[in-house]
Give the backbone structure.
Amino acid sequence: MPQNSKTITVTNDGVTLPIPSIVTGRGFITGKSGSGKSNTASVVIEELLKNRCPLLIIDTDGEYRGLKEKFKDLIHVGQKEESDVELTLERVDLITDLALIQGAPIILDVSTFKTEQSKSIINEVVTLLFHKEKEHRKHFLIVIEEVHEFIPQQGGVDELAQNIIRIAKRGRKRGLGICGISQRPSAVDKDFITQCSWSVWHRFTWAIDKKAVNQTLGVDYANQISSLKTGEAFLVTDWDETTRVTIKQKETFDEGATPHTSDIVRPTFKSDQSELIEQLRSIEGPPPKLDPNALRTELTSKNSRIKDLENRILELTSELDANPPLPSTKRIEPSKPVSLPNPSPNKLLEDSIESINANTKKQTTADVSQDFSPIWELGQLILYLWRVSLRGFLIILVKLIGIFKIKL
Ligand SMILES: Nc1ncnc2c1ncn2[C@@H]1O[C@H](COP(=O)(O)OP(=O)(O)OP(=O)(O)O)[C@@H](O)[C@H]1O
Ligand SMILES: [Mg+2]
């Protein structure tokens, strides 16, 4: 063990780990599902948080939120109801500043994201942390769950894998440590495992995993590894002999525990970093992107609607020309362009009625000055009756048009 360094205790019987070697080193916690990896990682994290060590956890399964039960300065960034801040790509720059410069411990919960989305967020985080550490050189630990998904042994080495391996190889000089967790050591890039300065090997039962144990720890350990109980492990470090240990149980709420019907109520834990949370919340994402294809489709549909309406106007105009409502009343000249408001057939009829009324009135007023003549009176009466019946006919016609919406 390095001399004079502060330590954290990870077992009930007093096994300790030196803080600087954990925070700036390269760690690997492995074992089959349910063997105790996340519990071990949580114990290390709890002990580091007690010592106010800055760290960021990349939580792929949403199981580290329970740490907030005891560590109120942890900020949970994710897409869950209980997240303190929503995780967006735009906020990553400030998240890394708050974590690295201000020392705010962060849980980056990517469990709700699709693989490609979470990869681009994680890539941004590790790239920024690596570059910022060149200047700040503060001790800082990144914990990555399910690390085989990001640095696979097989398949192409993408940008994210290169950046993680770069931290494993060159992070220590900048103060940047990394701890990967995986249930499949055979699926993790060997370049990562061989760089590790400390590792915890929990139970394995499958031959392929035992082969990986054989290659890294040797045949004796490979033969014993299937007999380890949950929480038991081989602790391998650059500074001490490999030992069989039983990691203590974590102190905080176990979010990753197998659910039972009695534990359906999930506690909510509040962070006390309200000022930093507000800062993060104030960073908005970019305005929604305009989709040129959608805009083009909308424009085409609007143009075709305009064309339809123009055609309809022409149709109505020619219908009106072919069926003039009244011989002598206002007509729309065929050669003239159609101007709005277009007089409706109803309006034309109403105008006609008004004109008849006006004529009748004019005629009646003029009659007063006439001398009395029975023949003239009879003629006037017939004329009056004809006008009244014509008016009545026109009124009925207007009503009928109104009812049946007949277009003249
Ligand atoms: N050291 C321990 N002491 C007591 N209980 C433990 C210990 N380690 C693990 N457990 C118990 O085992 C359960 C499974 O542990 P854990 O979630 O750490 O497994 P895991 O290896 O991370 O599994 P997975 O690969 O599925 O994530 C825990 O909920 C806890 O109850
Ligand atoms: Mg786990």
